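Today's session is about reading a structure prediction critically. Students often jump straight to the picture, but the first step is always the sequence itself: look for stretches that repeat, for charged clusters, for runs of hydrophobic residues. Only then move on to the predicted structure, which in these notes is written as discrete structure tokens rather than atom positions. Here is the chain we will use throughout the hour.
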Amino acid sequence: METVAYNFHSFLLNLSIYTTSPCRQLSFISSANRISKAKSTTLRLRMAHSHSAQDPVIEQQRVIIPSKHGEKLVGLLHETGSKEIVILCHGFRSRKDYNTMVNLAAALEKEGISVFRFDFAGNGAIVGHSKGGNVVLLYASKYRDIHILVNVSGRYDLNRGIAERLGEDFMQIIKKDGYIDVKNKTGGVEYRVTEESLMERLRTDMHEACLKIDKECRVLTVHGSADEIIPIEDALEFAKIIPNHKLHIVEGANHGYTSHQTELASVVVNFIKTVLEQDKVAPK
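Below is the predicted structure for this chain, in token form.
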């Protein structure tokens, strides 16, 4: 997972070329969700043009960004002309077009904030973790260019949740074969877990990573009280150790916020707007 965080840094540098501004502010929203689940991150950059407050035109541009490994990351840029841009990072086995990502993008657009949502390359290669959330937290622990970070339903202890997906004997099987194919109810292979990706997950210490996050980085953790994938205790652990942190529990929400999309979007947008307003009046 740390490898993913380093690759993500290269991806953001490439993204800055497409957004035409070296001084735009970046924020992250990350998501732990599979399929219909999502997390967030924020980024600030300055645009060369502006938009009308009365009649904003939201341009959606398909962007393809090459990685240093020869992969092509495909994303959608929602351009409002704002100085800020929010990067939406989906969860494991999810993608940029699922409900949570689309709804968050729409809510931010409505407030005049530009958004970029993209598909992680090789999504599914790392065992069932809350990919978006963990990647951006790891990123923030290594780099100091993140100003706002929103962690939606991220997993704190990456040693948990593996046996439930791969079986109690997962370690013996993966040591023997080098991989495990995870199948659906009809017997079809949904994704393959390699020994390399599993070992990287098991080596990743989110506690140590979170202790390294810059105290100037404002972090919001959102978690559903009825999350059936990742227990609410994980959110409480993040709240204990991240220095500049706010915790919001969405009562009754499951992992995908199926019946709580509006509340999730409201909490995230209000947090980002509040931080941006505080920055405007803060002494430079």
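Discussion point for the tutorial: Residues 2-158+204-281 form a domain with the Rossmann fold fold (CATH 3.40.50.1820).
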